[in-house]
């Protein structure tokens, strides 16, 4: 996408058609993929529980990835909450006993394995779990299962059964034993089907064995025999429940897991502990996901129902599309009529003197029409169960190889800058671009689990906020424009997409934490400089004392930041008042907002202070910004460059040696500015470096905000917890296609936001104030609908 933009960058019209062609191609890909996935779910079924129980693959050695969905890793507390007042029964042989112990350890890790019959009850959560020793499918097992169907007492909520290896062993693998197994399971199947009407019933197929490790007394247990027993069980259970809504769920995924791990078995028969734990976690996901609804557990979760606000948004976008089509058809007909007018005397065609202008209403509806189609794609990707999702899995190669590839591309597309000032527009776009690309790779690769990478990414996020402080301070200091129009333009561009996503995706504002962060810091910068006395460059040039006045303002700001950072109670009180609480609460409290704010609390101040010092030096001509000239004298430049390189490397060494995330996060707010300033000086002191920029990175930098927000739902999945899968089975090709669509969508949203900003935010103050009142009314109505929705849920 960026290459397309670059090839046409020399001429505007070629750029336009290149990007437009890419977007048309992306639209075609979306329509084709949507049709393919819809058809697949229509004919192959879209039950993710079936996939969870029957298919998947290993990511690495121990991470199991079900086909098409994400598996949540349940904590002890979550497992207890799910199974409260539940009775869980495991019935079968020693393999089922091992699975039983792995399952109950999810609730109580302190349980020790002992005996063939176990009854465990957790008094705190009233979870009752039993293991019943029935190593063969025979009359005794049938009688036990029948007793549950005939009992008037409460039946078990979950029943996990399975057996076969003992029958093979005791009867020396005879065919008569297989025939008797078929007869017995045929008599048990109707009873299990009856229990399945009120309980979750799972039949565990037999895992393969590692024949070379089997003891002499187990040599008759071969994989060929196990396959025959499994085939018989599947055929009988499926035929029994074919005409019934209640179905016994066949747990066949254990076979796939065992095929990869049975070589690590201690006796060739029983699975290693890690494999048993995986099977237990799958069972937990099958039963608990529909109850607990974890964000990163898409398997077995139904599609969430549309909320009232989502329905209203759908109606609004539908009406916008219809309205735009009607108006465009009317304009097209008028244009054709005017074009077909001919001069009856000369017989020549008359050309209209003035082409029909596009009305503001048509532009508005056109923007909402495109936005509605894009939001439909967002919803299909991350709310509807149409496209597949997978868990992240980190490897060093999945993070560092794409980084190197992008670095090469960035260096390849290098151009001269139009201006050679420190942190000029092209340079800041480049900076934002490569940082955003690194952050995207960080998210999709799951690199947050690797602490050194996490600490460096924290610096990139801080650098964005540093630019916020630098950019907005520079604008207000130089322009002295504190008008409402400027504030509304910035707030609209920052928040428009997030507000729409909050409505369409049913997520709180704080969920998209970076936008609230930059919005609040923008308002802090504005308030700091706008309150009396307003000190700007023009005023300060007349009297140097104004510089001390501004420094006093910055010191006051730093004092407030310091106070709030060490007073969580005061911070939470400020942001717990309505309507701020509606914006900054997540999961019923503002702790997440407190954590995000505190993590980079000083860096915006550092950006403002850097801008003040730089602009003061620039005004007094103490720095040289000519093309190819070093920023300072050669001696000073070399010394500063050496200190910057050492500081940059020293921070990287410290970040790479971090052992505890909490401790490193505590130091981060104070030390992150070291690497940021070091980078700024390295990038700007040498004149030849300052005079060049990467157009590849700069192109992405212009849409960095849209890229950061859109990744939540149309590149990643499950609210960034997983990865969107458009093309299953081909991970690399899937990433390429989803990335192409994702970048095209982000670019289009950026254009839509810019177009709407010109329409929605007028320069006339009286009109702007009226629209602000309308916006206030809109959000009041939104709050009312949200309150009604919460009441209906409860």
Summarize the structure.
It is a multi-pass membrane protein. This protein has 794 residues and is of the alpha/beta class.
In this structure, how is the largest beta sheet organized? 6 strands, mixed
DSSP strand (E) fraction? 5-15%
Distance separating the two termini: 47 Å
Low-confidence stretches: 5-13, 342-354
Record the strand order, biggest sheet. 4-5-3-6-7-8
How many helices? The count is 31
Mean pLDDT: 90
Q: Work out the count of structural domains.
A: 3
Shape type: elongated
Give the total of beta strands.
Answer: 13
Radius of gyration: 32 Å
- Name the structural class: alpha/beta
* Percent helix: 55-70%
Description of the structure:
This protein has 794 residues and is α/β, with parallel strands linked by helices. The chain folds into three domains: 53-292, SGNH hydrolase (Rossmann fold, 3-Layer(aba) Sandwich), CATH 3.40.50.1110; 387-761, no CATH class; 763-793. The protein is 63% helix and 7% strand. It contains 31 helices and 13 strands. The chain has a six-stranded mixed sheet, with helices on both faces. Strands 9-13-12 form a three-stranded antiparallel sheet. α29 (704-714) crosses α30 (731-760). The radius of gyration is 32 Å and the shape is elongated. The two termini are 47 Å apart. The model is unreliable at 5-13 and 342-354 (pLDDT under 50).
